[in-house]
Specification:
The chain is 42% helix and 12% strand. It has 225 residues and is an alpha/beta fold. The model has no long low-confidence stretch (mean pLDDT 86).
């Protein structure tokens, strides 16, 4: 999320609850999970791209069970960064909001990923391993699968939604969708037979919650019947 979007998010926060708003996304996040097949230059480029958004508080993560990948990615970052227009802002993110995480095995990596609940989750792994990881990661906002699927595709062209949960809210929110803008009402209609079946349930709940007016609103329908 760049500086302009930060103003929009703050405006939405201030009117939240008074008018309907969508998500309140924070600075952009990207987490890449890499195996031995990952290209360090691809990883570096993708992480640098997500650090470019402009707030200076973007978060980037690299998770791998292969510790040798970290030095290679760091070298690729050092090679690519000086040529970028926003190198100074990106460097701040690298210094303050980047984290490389070495996991002992795949299960511990998945545990870390689900805990972080990244906005963007890139799978830089062998194609035949992707489905297994997809079955285990449940909190990512958008999942970019394979070496040729950088997050920039989601930024600019791929869809389906690029208003995504950040700051670990992917644990309980999904990306913005069309139904979030639709009003829905529940329509309930009982006939007499259905009311009879529900009577005992209402009686128990009204007694347990000590709400006798609730119980009366049901029982009055059975007086003189």
């Amino acid at each position: 999320m760049g500086p302009g979007n930060a103003y929009v998010a703050e405006a939405q926060r201030q009117v939240f609850g008074t008018v309907g708003v969508d998500l309140l996304p924070g600075p952009s996040e990207a987490l890449a999970y890499a195996d031995a097949t990952a290209r360090p230059d691809y990883l570096a480029a993708d992480l640098l791209a997500q650090a470019e958004h402009g707030s200076g508080r973007e978060k980037i993560y690299l998770v791998s069970c292969f510790p040798e990948i970290f030095a290679r990615v760091q070298k690729a970052i050092e090679d690519q960064l000086p040529r970028l227009k926003h190198a100074r802002a990106i460097q701040r993110v690298l210094n303050e909001y980047s984290l490389f995480i070495h996991s002992q095995d795949e299960d511990s990596a998945i545990q870390v990923i689900n805990y972080i609940a990244p906005e963007h989750f890139e799978l830089h792994i062998a194609s035949d391993a992707i489905e297994s990881i997809l079955a285990k990661v449940h909190t990512a906002g958008a999942i970019l699968c394979g070496h040729d699927t950088p997050t920039v595709l989601g930024d600019f062209t791929a869809g389906p939604s690029h208003t995504l949960p950040t700051s670990r809210t992917g644990r309980f929110f999904s990306g913005l969708k069309i139904t979030d803008f639709m009003r829905r009402s529940s329509i309930v209609r009982y006939d007499r037979a259905s009311l009879v079946k529900a009577r005992s349930v209402v009686e128990v709940f009204s007694r347990l919650e000590d709400l006798d007016a609730h119980g009366q609103s049901m029982e009055i329908r059975f007086k003189n019947s």
